[in-house]
Amino acid sequence: MSGVFEIVVIGLLAIGCFFTLLGGVAMVKLSDFFRRLHGPAKASTLGVGCILFASIVYHWVNGSGVHPREILITVFLFLTAPISAHVMSRAALSLMDDRPPHPDRTPDADERVVDREDPAPRDRD
Questions:
Q1: CA–CA gap between residue 6 and residue 77 (Å, rounded)
Q2: 3-state DSSP: the chain helix, strand, coil percent, rounded to 5?
Q3: Between 20 and 30 A from 27 (CA), which of 2, 21, 69, 123?
């Protein structure tokens, strides 16, 4: 393995470990559920993605070839982590008693309907 690829692998591992640690610290230190969910969903996904990419580069350079399991793990991680964070935040939002109003609805939502394409409210007929 050449020196350039060793530096690339070490750099990817260091970045991956940093972001994974950052995601763990965010989950412990942040104040409410939504902030705690955001940290691991973003930072840990990037961290584990960098570690998996370092593994792909290492195996590719050493001649053992790129293993499909590493690529599948990476694809699965990048597909499921944002979706699961979104589903958990929607579930938590629906359980809140004093949740904020929907941004597409006006205070007098019974009298006016807001269309997504046309942001100007119009009266019901």
A1: 25
A2: 65, 5, 30
A3: 69
Q: Which residues contact 92 (CB under 8 A, 6 or more apart)?
A: 33, 34, 37
Q: DSSP assignment of 68-118, as one string? A: HHHHHHHHHHHHHHHHHHHHHHHHHHHH-SSPPPPTT--TTTTTEE--SSS
What does the alpha-carbon distance between residue 54 and residue 17 come to, in Å, rounded to a whole number?
11
Name residue, tokens 């970045």: 15
DSSP state of 63: T
Burial zone of 94 (CB within 10 Å; 0-12 exposed, 13-18 middle, 19+ buried): exposed
Q: Which parts of the chain have pLDDT scores under 50?
A: none
Contact call for residues 27 and 47 (beta carbons, < 8 A): no
Whole-number Å distance between alpha carbons of 31 and 114: 34
- What span, in angstroms and rounded, lies between the C-alpha atoms of 50 and 104? 38
Task: Find the length of the chain.
Answer: 125
